[in-house]
Specification:
This protein is an alpha/beta fold and 217 residues long. It has helices at residues 10-25, 28-32, 43-48, 79-90, 125-136, 166-172, 195-199; strands at 2-3, 97-102, 115-117, 153-154, 177-182. Helix 5 links the parallel strand 3 (115-117) and strand 4. The structure holds zinc ion (ZN).
């Protein structure tokens, strides 16, 4: 799991803290699997108070480049990115899942509830399975941010589709599931983002979905 490829995306850090606590405290996953986490990828940007995304010539989540058939001179420009690439490639076991946590646009237009990045019309089977599991966990965490499976996968940031992101890197490295989760900055009036709700957002879904989706508020 990685977080803060974009240094300003603070609420994602709370969600990562909640995920790590849950894995360590209560799940067989924490016992049966080794969890690797890089909580702050762009630590220089965080310390400087940068926004970070789209920093020229490219930001940390556009830095997962390698030499290819045309050029052997491509390499990451950030030490953290190069270190992560080397670390992932040094792992001996299978890469079961990789999750990169981000924040979306500021608010509105679907940016106020958590969602995975992708094409909602062509959801990867592994991600679909994860969505089903999250849906099945409904309402166990009433203090958490709501996760709406109807809006659980959204197209976001068209530039990312072909970009050398962490998600595309681990996908190429053979991860069974490689996903990007966007944690809202603000939330909704009924479901605001707070440190506590973001930590707990791993994850519940709203009771109303049990009887079918309704108009978004
Ligand atoms: Zn981001």
């Amino acid at each position: 799991m990685t977080c803060r490829h974009h240094s300003c995306e603070t609420t994602a850090s709370y969600a990562l803290a909640g995920l790590l606590s849950a894995l360590l405290a209560e799940t067989p996953l924490g016992r049966d699997y080794t969890v690797h986490a890089v909580p702050i990828v762009d630590i220089d940007g965080v310390e400087r108070g940068d926004q970070g995304k789209y920093r020229a010539p490219h930001d940390h989540n556009r830095d997962y480049v390698d030499g290819n058939a045309l050029s052997s001179s491509l390499s990451p420009i950030y030490a953290a990115t190069a270190a992560i690439m080397g670390y992932v490639r040094s792992l001996s076991g299978p890469l079961v899942a990789a999750l990169d946590l981000h924040c979306p646009y500021r608010w509105g237009n679907g940016n106020d509830t958590p969602f995975f990045v992708g094409d909602p019309e062509a959801i990867d089977p592994a991600l679909s399975s994860l969505l089903d599991r999250l849906s099945a966990a409904t309402d166990r965490r009433p203090e958490s941010l709501a996760f709406d499976p109807e809006d659980g996968v959204q197209g976001f940031d068209g530039q990312a589709a072909a970009a050398p992101t962490f998600r595309s890197f681990v996908d190429e490295e053979g991860a069974d599931l490689a996903a990007t989760l966007e944690v809202p900055y603000v939330g909704t009036a009924a479901d605001p983002v707070t440190p506590a709700s973001a930590r707990a957002s791993a994850v519940r879904s709203r009771r109303r979905w049990a009887s079918g989706p309704s108009e978004s508020s």
